[in-house]
Design brief:
The structure holds two protein chains of two kinds. By secondary structure, chain A is mainly α. Chain A has 30 helices and two strands. Chain A has a two-stranded antiparallel ribbon with strand order 1-2. Chain A is elongated and about 150 Å long. The longest helix of chain B is centred in the last third of the chain and has 31 residues. The chains are: A mainly alpha, B mainly alpha.
Chain lengths: ~700, ~100
């Protein structure tokens, strides 16, 4: 069905043939940065590095827009053959680009939000590299960032599961490189664990998920003999339902790794050790949504097995609520957003699990807008405090009076701790306003983007699975509460530290992308307004009508969630806004009211500790057992030393003494001494006396004659 | 007419004398003479049987033997002279340097 809808590239015009540029422009950007940076060394300044990187991503965005324009005439989409890749027997996997409404939606989000974050990072990293005292890393940052965009584009544009997997692993690598960007900062007080450790944790957790994705691909190829999307979906009806269930459940494992769902979400909060633009781009807006994209892309597979859909929806729903409870009790500004991201990803996963693929993709897009905005805003807040606390030379003259901070105070200064903020709306008004827009969008108040996308998911959930609806509604209530708490703690009340009192507004290179994202967060809901269903019709061309039905606007659901959100915000105001804390060391008002529950939420339900005790410690003990007992004692001491070593020495001795000395030498020596003995016998007859010889001849003649005469 | 058995007996005695001379004596010239004795013992038998059976074959053989003996004498005497020159003796037992 889907294959028939895809036209071949020769039949259609448009700009489709330019689609490889979405991968190769960022690649060209990073290569230019590597090569020119190596040639010009110190003369290759920050403006050149970031300029090339921004131009490359902007180029990719322009190409994505061209794809969007071309699709207007050919909604069915095209596949663009780029290069033969793997041809082994029946296995034929070319590198094909798939341009359809679903992939172009992802391309636009990745390159659009990516461009804004690149621009922001040009300003942010200028300060960050100086605070980390390693200005040379500026170029390295943009090289990684461009590589990420290229890999993300491979992921969303691939026409087969294998090409998607190439991008999937590529973005995992970039995530690893960028989480561990300040790899020598170890351990990092703001995140609790060292940066390089956080990077490894992310990589390993993702490997567990990737294992599931790989098994799903093996099963798919085994069952259908192909990995290309359209061909696989054609065969869905022919595969045994058990196999489809296994494929989708293994795929779900991959989704839980990449999109940070239970039980593999643990890497994402620690991934906040990376620079803040990375948190915004990779760990909020784009990479972590790859799992949602995978499920949406595999809609025909998931739709074939309702059991898998229920599992996906439940994983999403439980994760949404679970992560939201943790976000309530965090004091680190980025940790709140990290758990919020996990929670919102839970919304999307639940949506695509319920078959509401459009609602999931809609939330993916709007979430990319407001969560990127919130992360970048938090970066601006962090930087505002950092610059007030340790003025750099270029803005030092304004804040000379802060230099008299004691060494001890410097040591404990954590610019991400919301407890030392407060009252920042007066110091950094631009950041305050855009942050407020993002927070309200995330809380889901009309008419901002988050309201429409979240309510579409909730309306679908009420239809499909009341349990998931209850979970998501509770999560939505907590979302509004923790965002209200965060905004009140950070921007209202009074400054609870010197740094907060003298916070410095960020430069325009950072605030302009924030304003653009704020605009998108306000108007993003227009993509799929109830009644108009723009995104639904747009994605229907790719997903087909059965997977992309328009959801009726449910006024009860909308009213319930809006009232709950308002109630949560009011509750947050009661606790944090009415009598704001004046001291950074003051107890959180919820701590006394909730007691043990607060401690559990603050300690993330001890999931890391449980994993440590249940998995990591037994694994280490197993590794130690293998290393010491199996490898060293059994294998090295016993098998190698005792069995092989001693046995071999014994065999060598046996071969040397009895065999070589006895038998071989015996043969040689025996031959020699035998010859000598025989010679002695013969030389006895060799007397040298002629008459003896004559006697012999005579006797011989007599003997011969005697024989002839008497016997012949 | 003398029966052939007499010749046969005389030839046997001569041959035995010759053979014993070769085996027993050490003087090269005596050995040489003993060899001639054995050759002539054979010659005697050849001519005796030739006359008895009235066939000329035996007599022709005798001429061959005399011719070969003459040649042998020439070579043999030359050898003896050479031996004498190197050893200052013709004692045949002196020539035992080929002893193994």
């Amino acid at each position: 069905m889907l294959a028939a809808m895809i036209s071949s590239i020769e039949e259609v015009g448009g700009f489709f043939t330019s689609v490889p540029l979405i991968v190769f422009l960022p690649l060209a950007g990073l290569l230019l940065n590597i090569i020119l940076g190596a040639i010009f060394k110190d003369r290759w300044g920050e403006r050149a590095s970031s300029g090339i990187a921004i131009a490359a991503v902007l180029g990719a965005f322009v190409v994505s827009v061209l794809q969007w324009l071309s699709l207007q005439g050919h909604h069915e989409g095209v596949t663009v053959m780029f290069k033969e890749w793997i041809q082994i027997g029946d296995l034929d996997i070319p590198w094909e680009f798939r341009v359809d409404t679903l992939s172009v939606t992802m391309m636009l989000v990745v390159s659009g939000v990516g461009t804004l974050i690149h621009i922001y990072a040009a300003g942010y990293m200028h300060y960050d590299v100086r605070y980390k005292e390693d200005p040379a890393s500026y170029r390295r940052f943009f090289i990684y960032l461009n590589l990420f965009i290229a890999m993300m584009m491979v992921l969303v544009s691939g026409n087969s599961y294998l090409m998607l997997f190439v991008g999937w692993e590529g973005v995992g690598l970039c995530s690893f490189l960028l989480i561990g960007f300040w790899y020598s900062r170890n351990p990092d007080a703001s995140t609790g664990i060292g940066n390089s450790f956080a990077a490894k944790k992310a990589f390993v957790a993702n490997r567990v998920g990737d294992f599931g994705f790989l098994i799903a691909m093996f099963l798919t190829f085994w069952a259908t003999g192909t990995l290309s999307f359209a061909d696989v979906f054609e065969h869905v009806d022919a595969i045994a339902p058990g196999i489809v269930l296994a494929i989708t459940l293994f795929m779900l494992l991959g989704v839980t790794g990449k999109s940070a769902q239970l039980p593999l979400y643990v890497w994402l909060p620690d991934a906040m050790a990376g620079p803040t633009p990375v948190s915004a781009l990779i760990h909020a807006a784009t990479m972590v949504t790859a799992g949602v994209y995978l499920v949406a892309r595999s809609a025909p597979l998931f739709a074939a097995v309702p059991e898998a859909q229920t599992a996906v929806a439940l994983v999403g729903g439980i994760t949404a609520l679970f992560a939201a409870t943790i976000a309530v009790a965090q004091s680190d500004i980025k940790k709140v957003l990290a758990y919020s991201t996990i929670s919102q990803l839970g919304f999307m996963v639940a949506a695509v699990g319920m078959g509401a693929f459009v609602a999931g993709m809609f939330h993916l897009v709007t979430h990319a807008f407001f969560k990127a905005l919130l992360f970048l805003g938090s970066g601006a807040v962090i930087l505002a405090l950092e610059r007030a606390h340790h003025p750099l030379e270029e803005d030092g003259h304004e804040h000379d009076h802060h230099d008299d901070h004691g060494q001890a105070a410097e040591h404990h200064f954590d610019p991400q701790d919301m407890r030392i903020m407060g009252g920042l709306r007066k110091q950094i008004p631009t950041t305050y306003w855009v942050y407020l827009v993002g927070a309200v969008a995330l809380a889901g108040l009309p008419p901002l983007a988050g309201f429409f996308s979240k309510d579409e998911i909730l309306a679908d959930a009420l239809h499909a699975n009341p349990l998931v609806y209850a979970l998501l509604t509770a999560a939505a209530f907590l979302t509004a509460f923790y965002m209200g708490r965060q905004v009140l703690l950070v921007f209202f009340g009074q400054a609870r530290s010197e740094a907060a009192a003298h916070a410095v507004e960020s430069p325009r290179v950072m605030t302009i992308p924030l304003m653009v994202l704020a605009g998108l967060s306000i108007f993003g809901g227009a993509l799929n307004l109830p009644g108009l269903h723009g995104l639904t019709h747009w994605l229907e061309y790719t997903l087909g009508h059965e997977f992309a039905h328009a959801t009726e606007f449910n006024i009860t659901v909308a009213l319930t969630s809006t009232l709950l959100a308002l109630a949560a915000i009011y509750l947050a105001w009661l606790l944090y806004g009415r009598q704001p804390a004046t001291d950074a060391k003051a107890q959180d008002p919820l701590q006394a009211r909730l007691g043990g529950l607060w401690r559990a939420m603050q300690n993330k339900w001890w999931v890391d500790e449980i994993y440590e005790a249940l998995i990591i410690q037994p694994y280490r003990r197993l590794a130690a057992f293998f290393a010491e007992t199996v490898d060293w004692r059994f294998w090295h001491d016993w098998v190698h030393d005792s069995l092989t070593g001693r046995g071999f020495r014994g065999l060598a001795r046996f071969l040397a003494n009895p065999v070589d000395q006895g038998v071989i030498d015996g043969i040689a020596n025996g031959l020699a001494s035998g010859t000598v003995g025989l010679s002695k016998v013969f030389s006895f007859f060799q007397t040298g006396f002629v008459r003896n010889y004559a006697l012999m001849v005579f006797l011989g003649v007599v003997a011969m004659l005697g024989y002839l005469v008497f016997f012949a | 007419m003398i029966p052939v058995s007499y010749y046969f007996a005389l030839s046997a005695i001569l041959f035995t004398l010759g053979a014993l001379g070769v085996l027993i004596r050490k003087n090269a010239i005596i050995i040489f003479m003993s060899v001639e004795l054995m050759l002539n013992a054979a010659n005697l038998l050849f001519v005796a049987f030739a006359r008895t059976y009235e066939a000329l074959d035996g007599q022709i053989y005798v001429f061959f033997v005399i011719a070969v003996a003459a040649a042998e004498v020439a070579v043999g005497l030359a050898l003896i002279v050479a031996i004498y020159r190197s050893k200052q003796s013709i004692d045949i037992d002196e020539l035992s340097s080929m002893k193994g």
